[in-house]
Each structure stands twice: as structure tokens, then as C-alpha cells.
Design a protein that fits this description.
about 325 residues; mainly alpha; MetI-like fold; 14 helices; flat
Length: about 325
């Protein structure tokens, strides 16, 4: 308010941003901010220099240690590629034993992914959305196969689903299903070690999604199943795809639980890791060829998931 009692009306715009209102002795005056200095050569205002970005330097000793780590992880892969029989590679890949192991590995790993999707997605949803007593214990049990030695997992499967196991005796007596040393047993062993990768990835996707879309769908009258199918699944599709890829790669490379629970029967349970182990004793070229196939699959999975694990800035 001025000395005459007239109220002041604030002004908005570039002029109000450039002027500062100051009251001195009851009189309202405008004060401009200091202007930037002028260049002596051009007479134009001098622009402030952009901030200098300092280059981050690693602590002393980190670089050589990192180089040693990279060399340690890379050298075995280089040796595998260098030892590969490139001249006879097509003939080695077309060998009957190799093709049988490849076909069986695809059947078992894809079967494990199917079972993991069927049972793992509902489990991930319950762990992400519902609060119940013992949820942390359930999550720990579900993720335990990720850190459990695979051979121990195979022994546990044998004691649970073997012919004299806790559930195996009922399956054998009532239904006549015998899981050990069969293709179904190999699929079950791979599912046991691979499903946790799908569950933990899908659960993280469910926790990170915006639930307001589900609330909006429910407000519009969509049922729970319709909301899950039309809203939730599209939103968690990247997490679901990443989890399925990790699950498939883990199932494809499973060795310990498979050989302990399902055995190493050619044409029935001998997957690629088991075939590599057996061929290494008799035919090194076949073992190297199968190893190259699995290495290529692993690289494809890593390249496909690079944007999710290491997003570009």
C-alpha cells in the first residue's frame, strides 16, 4: 500500500521478475538487479562460463584390480572360442547325440518355463499384493533354491518325489506316475531351480507398477480377473519377459539337480550340460561344440536384458 492509501496490485510477467520493489521513506521505488559486465572487445554482456564437470577418478589401485578381474572372467571364454573346432563345427552340431541333447534341453527348459509361469505368476502376485502372517518366511523358502547347491536340491527332490518319497509314494500308488529318471523328472528339477528367478522378477515389477490404473479399472466396473488380464499383465510385461528369459536360461544350464533326481539317460534326461560333462571324457570337440551353443544362448539372453539391468542415462 502506498502513502496515499492505494493498495498495490502485484504484476506478473517479465517486468516483475526483472524489477525489485523497495520501500524507502514511504515511497515505492523499483530497483533493477545488477547488469552483467560488458566485454571490452565486443561491448556485449559477458556470458557466465558453464560449470566445469570434473572427471571422476577411481581410487588408487582400483584400475589394476578391475583389469585383473575382467581378464580372469574373460580368459576362459576366449580359451573356449579359441579351442572350438570351427572347421568341423557343422558336422559336430549335426551329430545324433548332440541333436538329441539339444532337442531334450529345449523341451525340458521350455516345460520348466511353462510350469514357472503357471504357478510362479500367481505366487508373485500374492507376495507383492497381500499381507499375511509368515509372508517373509514364504518368500525366503521360495527364493531358497537360488542359493541352495543344485545337488542338494536334487537330493531334496528325490526324497520328496521319489518312489518312496513324501509325495512320490502317493503319485506312484494312486496315479502311477514315477518322476525320477524320466523326462518329466528333468522338467521338475529344472523348474525347482529356475522358478525363483521368475517369481522375484515379477514380484519386483508388481511392486513398482502404478496401482492407480488398477483402481481406475475397478472403478469402471472391471472384475479382478479382467483387471489382471487387461491392465496388470500389460504393465508388468517387461518384468514378465525378463523373468521368463532368466528362468529359461537357468533351466537350460541346470546340471546338479537334474543328474541327481533324473539321472543321465541319453534321449530321456541327458540335457546339454549333462552331455557336455559326458562328452568331455570321450570327445572334447563335441563338448566344446555344446559349450559354444550354451555360451551363445547366454549371450543372447544378456543382450536382450541389458536395457533392464543397465538402463542408459
Amino acid at each position: 500500500m502506498t502513502s496515499s492509501g492505494t493498495p498495490l496490485t502485484p504484476k506478473h510477467g517479465p517486468e516483475s521478475a526483472a524489477n525489485l520493489a523497495v520501500v524507502t521513506g514511504g515511497t515505492l521505488t523499483a530497483e533493477r538487479p545488477p547488469e552483467p559486465p560488458l566485454s571490452e572487445a565486443t561491448g556485449r554482456p559477458v556470458q557466465p562460463a558453464p560449470p566445469v564437470r570434473r572427471t571422476r577418478r577411481a581410487p588408487a589401485g582400483f584400475l589394476p584390480l578391475a583389469v585383473v578381474a575382467v581378464a580372469f572372467l574373460t580368459l576362459p571364454l576366449v580359451a573356449l572360442v579359441a579351442r572350438a573346432p570351427w572347421g568341423s563345427l557343422p558336422a559336430a552340431l549335426s551329430a545324433p547325440g548332440v541333436l538329441t541333447a539339444l532337442r531334450l534341453s529345449l523341451i525340458c527348459s521350455l516345460g520348466a518355463v511353462g510350469l514357472s509361469l503357471l504357478f510362479g505368476v500367481p505366487l508373485a502376485w500374492l507376495l507383492a499384493r497381500l499381507r499375511f502372517r509368515g509372508r517373509d518366511v514364504v518368500r525366503a523358502v521360495v527364493l531358497l533354491p537360488m542359493v541352495l547347491p543344485p545337488v542338494v536340491g536334487g537330493v531334496a527332490l528325490l526324497l520328496a518325489f521319489g518312489r518312496n518319497g513324501l509325495a512320490g509314494r502317493w503319485l506312484d500308488g494312486l496315479v502311477g506316475i514315477t518322476l525320477p529318471f524320466s523326462t518329466a523328472g528333468a522338467i521338475l528339477a529344472e523348474t525347482f531351480v529356475a522358478m525363483p528367478f521368475l517369481v522375484i522378477t515379477v514380484e519386483a515389477g508388481l511392486r513398482g507398477m502404478d496401482r492407480r490404473y488398477e483402481d481406475a479399472a475397478a472403478t469402471l466396473g472391471a472384475g479382478r480377473w479382467t483387471t489382471f488380464r487387461r491392465v496388470t499383465l500389460p504393465l508388468i510385461a517387461p518384468s514378465l519377459g525378463a523373468g521368463a528369459a532368466l528362468c529359461w536360461a537357468r533351466a537350460l544350464g541346470e546340471f546338479g539337480a537334474t543328474i541327481t533326481f533324473a539321472g543321465n539317460l541319453p534321449g530321456a534326461t541327458q540335457t546339454m550340460p549333462l552331455a557336455v560333462y559326458l562328452a568331455l571324457q570321450n570327445n572334447v570337440d563335441t563338448a566344446v561344440t555344446l559349450s559354444l551353443v550354451m555360451l551363445a544362448i547366454s549371450l543372447v539372453v544378456l543382450v536382450g536384458l541389458r536395457g533392464r539391468w543397465f538402463p542408459s542415462r
